[in-house]
Design brief:
Elements lengths: L7 H12 L8 E4 L7 H9 L2 E4 L15 H12 L12 H20 L15
Parallel strand pairs: 1-2
Length: 127
């Protein structure tokens, strides 16, 4: 395990070396501006992965949803609604990954067969 004071860009090198045999079909990764530098060239040369840095427009002022970034934030929020994932209870990465899979399965089941007694959020009642 790496120290907490390591830069995100350096942590990405460690992460991709640790998982290089798990996701062999991984072809593209989106990241924010913290992952600029030589990381894109390194990923392309070593793993054949295309790194796309999602940056805001130079003329942008204030908050704007950036393409692809909201997907990660939204997914983390959905997973965080599960009590077990709301805090760091797990001691291993494998246990945390398992709980993420279970939370995702639960979310998909609820979407496939919603409870008719619960009102859907953000829906207006038609009179």
């Amino acid at each position: 395990m790496e120290a907490a004071n390591i830069a995100d860009r350096e942590g990405a090198h460690w992460l991709f070396r640790a998982i290089d045999q798990q996701w062999t079909a991984l072809a593209k990764v989106w990241a924010d501006h913290a992952y600029n530098g030589d990381l894109a060239e390194w990923l392309r040369a070593v793993y054949g992965i295309d790194l796309e840095v999602v940056e805001r427009a130079p003329e942008q002022k204030g908050f704007t949803v950036l393409p692809r970034r909201w997907v990660v934030e939204r997914t983390i929020a959905w997973l965080g609604r599960n009590r077990r994932l709301s805090k760091d209870y797990e001691h291993t990465g494998a246990a945390m990954e398992t709980w993420c899979y279970l939370a995702s399965i639960s979310l998909l089941i609820r979407r496939l067969r919603p409870n008719p007694r619960h009102e859907a959020p953000y829906c207006r009642k038609v009179a």
